[in-house]
Write a sequence for this structure.
């Protein structure tokens, strides 16, 4: 039997046309297009690109956006279920249960035709933000806010969360966040989703596998970890001691390091720029300055002293963006999933289109 690679490091498990990462040069492309270019488009266009393999033309964009808007509503039965959740449980756990519920309400749940899968993909992308916003509001005993058709995917989410139409920059930040979170090759959640899809399980079940895997603090849960860390550092005077003491205890600093990138994560650069602009618009650079200080300390400790390539990853400055958008830390992973769902669906469909069950071996000791 072949040599075992712990954590499957460096193992190539499948071919994909969905995204490409060069972890040495810091390049990320979805369907052949650089992330820097994609970040300036709308989430609807990027979602279509991931799922359908091409940038939509004008008519296709309008059709896709219209279908997403028509499917944003969630039904009354689901809202009743959400109201009965015991709060105090993590938001992602509620989201996972809610996605199971919408599968129950979808009569095409166990239909596996390409048309049924296309319909399910639209429902999933469209309903995720409505569910996350409704879950959050009902945890405070508040009624959900109806989606607004005139707002973009990201702006509508912020509106449903707070009842306030976001500023232009806030809306742009949310769209960019969803785009930057939308896809990342064979990361743990996507891999787990592809395993589920490879057994020919349905799309909802596969997405729930993705959600469960995203939750962990070494993956999507790190975004909440960064927000918690920013709160824990109660004043900038203690930042250096805080970071060094954590490293001494061999604890990880959330939002740093990556299995594939051995350089600056290209998404982190874009997030950093958005965070800086939000800080300026808000007239309060506290969170941005604090994050930049942590980055400088980490650079000194890892790059300059230890010669180890530990840079900010996607979760570091996204957490700062959430701070400025007034997003509570407990929603961070669920919002990550709102973006990632398009990439998950693309991988689910790619797996179905050329399937062989994913079943590696273990080395018995
Ligand atoms: N803080 C401190 N040390 C770190 C960090 C970090 N964030 N990341 C890696 N290191 C150190 C490790 O302690 C280890 O040191 P050692 O060689 O002395 O044992 C070395 O760098 C290699 O780290 P591993 O954890 O073995 O690297 P791996 O490729 O398995 O893990 C991971 C990558 C999980 C992302 C890791 O860097 C980490 O835990 N980071 C913090 C959590 C995080 O931000 N996760 C989000 C990743 S992006 C995403 O999934 C959306």
């Amino acid at each position: 039997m072949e040599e075992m690679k712990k954590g499957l490091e460096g193992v190539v498990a499948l071919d994909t046309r969905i995204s490409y990462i060069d972890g040495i040069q810091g390049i990320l492309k979805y369907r052949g297009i650089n992330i820097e270019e994609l970040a300036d488009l709308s989430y609807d266009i990027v979602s279509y690109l991931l799922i359908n393999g091409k940038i939509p033309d004008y008519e296709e964009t309008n059709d896709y956006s219209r279908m997403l808007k028509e499917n944003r509503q969630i039904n009354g039965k689901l809202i009743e279920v959400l109201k009965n959740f015991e709060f105090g449980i993590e938001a992602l756990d509620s989201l996972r249960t809610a996605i199971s519920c919408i599968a129950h309400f979808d009569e095409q749940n166990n239909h596996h035709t390409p048309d049924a899968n296309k319909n399910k993909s639209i429902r999933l992308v469209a309903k995720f933000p409505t569910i996350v916003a409704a879950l959050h509001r009902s945890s405070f005993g508040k009624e959900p806010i109806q989606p607004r058709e005139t707002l973009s995917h990201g702006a509508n989410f912020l509106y449903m969360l707070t009842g306030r139409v976001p500023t232009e920059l806030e809306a742009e930040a949310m769209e960019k966040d969803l785009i930057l979170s939308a896809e990342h090759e064979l990361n743990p959640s996507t891999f787990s989703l592809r395993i589920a899809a490879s057994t020919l399980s349905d799309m909802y079940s596969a997405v729930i596998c993705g959600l469960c895997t995203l939750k962990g603090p070494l993956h999507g849960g790190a975004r909440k970890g960064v927000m918690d860390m920013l709160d824990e550092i109660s004043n900038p005077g203690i930042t250096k001691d805080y970071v060094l003491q954590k490293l001494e205890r061999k604890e990880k600093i959330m939002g740093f390091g990556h299995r594939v990138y051995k350089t600056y994560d290209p998404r982190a650069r874009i997030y950093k720029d958005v965070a800086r602009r939000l800080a300026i618009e808000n007239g309060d650079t506290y969170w941005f300055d604090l994050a930049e200080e942590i980055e400088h300390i980490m650079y000194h400790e890892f790059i300059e002293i230890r010669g180890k390539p530990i840079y900010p990853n996607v979760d570091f400055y996204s957490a700062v963006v959430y701070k400025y958008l007034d997003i509570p830390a407990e929603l961070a992973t669920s919002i990550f999933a709102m973006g990632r769902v398009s990439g998950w669906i693309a991988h689910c469909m790619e797996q179905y289109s050329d399937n062989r069950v994913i079943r590696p071996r273990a080395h018995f000791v």
User: Anything to note?
Assistant: The chain has two domains: 32-214, 222-324. Residues 114-138 form the longest helix (25 residues). DSSP finds 16 helices and three strands in the chain. The longest strand covers residues 19-22.
